[in-house]
Design brief:
CATH superfamily: Aldolase class I
Largest sheet: 8 strands, parallel
Structural class: alpha/beta
Strand content: 15-25%
Helix content: 25-40%
Number of strands: 16
Strand order of the largest sheet: 3-16-15-10-9-8-7-4
Number of helices: 8
Distance between the termini: 28 Å
CATH architecture: Alpha-Beta Barrel
CATH class: Alpha Beta
Radius of gyration: 18 Å
Order of helices and strands: EEEEEEHEHEHEHEEEEEHEHEHH
Length: 301
């Protein structure tokens, strides 16, 4: 019998595959296509302390090997989320990871405190949000800010905390070490890379925000490299993501040092990707006579 279980800071997942925040809603719209019981975890769309309207449209554009999004973390706020989305996800045998966003440290702490008594398994803190008090630079682009927000959030959190790292930095390992110093339980990486697309026929930006987050297969080699670097710089478990569309993609991240993986952009063109990745990893283990997925984590040195 093959063991696909992985452990993230004491939370046991039946397999290492989860959804990436912002690409799966909170599971309801995908549940018609995907048996959520087959996933290691569902990671929700970002949730803030109050409803966010998001950015003006257009806010999505296709690019070679991926897409740019500037949705701006539109969400209904924590109250609606707790009343509507958590009860829906509780119907399934999968772990629930809530992605948290905010514009100030207080915003994040408010949501984390509110979730302390909710029946969810882990919290993923999206530190790619612009910090309004620091003139809009993302929390995740300054190691001091990364350490400080991690430490603050940990004061209010009952669940293990995943810090989601931004790749838009000079050295990702500096950010990873800062999160570890602040008391993070798990790291997830990478978030989207800042990109731009220009519509040559309209002679203007393809998304109203001018820039957006690039995701999809085009960013995978960068993501694998960063996961490898972080795995060799800190001792925390890592959730790897960035352009995963197949089991082979997922296995690259695991071999580089990720304990689990998130599937994001691929969900938009094939809603069944997550389940196909789970089944593909299992086939790989069978074919190579590997009994336990743990044997693969970080073996490429």
């Amino acid at each position: 019998m093959i063991n696909m279980n992985v452990n993230l800071a004491g939370v046991e997942l039946k397999n290492p595959v989860m959804t990436a925040s912002g690409t799966f809603g909170s599971g309801a719209e995908y549940s018609e296509y995907v048996d959520l019981n087959k996933l290691g975890a569902v990671v929700t769309k970002g949730v803030a302390s109050v409803p966010w309207p998001g950015n003006p449209t257009p806010r999505i554009a296709e690019t070679y090997g991926g897409m740019i999004n500037a949705v701006g973390l539109q969400n209904p706020g924590i109250d609606v989320f707790c009343q509507r989305d958590i009860p829906f996800l509780k119907k399934y045998d999968t772990k629930i990871i809530v992605n948290v966003c905010g514009k100030t440290t207080e915003d994040y702490c408010k949501v984390v405190e509110r979730l302390a008594d909710e029946d969810v398994d882990m919290l993923e803190i999206n530190i790619s949000c612009p910090n309004v008090k620091e003139g809009g630079i993302a929390f995740g682009q300054d190691p001091k800010a990364v350490e400080a927000i991690t430490r603050q959030v940990k004061k209010y959190a009952k669940q293990p905390i995943i810090m989601k790292l931004s790749p838009n930095v000079t050295d990702i390992t500096v950010m990873a070490k800062a999160a570890e110093a602040g008391g993070a339980d798990v790291l997830s990486l990478i978030n989207t890379l800042t990109g731009m697309k220009i519509d040559v026929n309209r002679r203007t930006f393809a998304v109203a925000n001018k820039t957006g987050g690039l995701s999809g297969p085009a960013i995978k080699p960068i993501a694998v490299r960063m996961v490898y670097q972080v795995a060799n710089a800190v001792s925390l478990p890592i959730i790897g993501m960035g352009g995963i569309a197949t089991a082979e993609d997922a296995l690259e991240f695991i071999l580089a040092g990720a304990t689990a993986v998130s599937v994001g952009t691929a969900n938009f063109h094939n809603p069944c990707t997550t389940v196909e990745v789970v089944e593909g990893i299992e086939e790989y283990l069978n074919k190579n006579k590997i009994q336990d997925i743990q044997e693969l984590i970080g073996v490429v040195k």
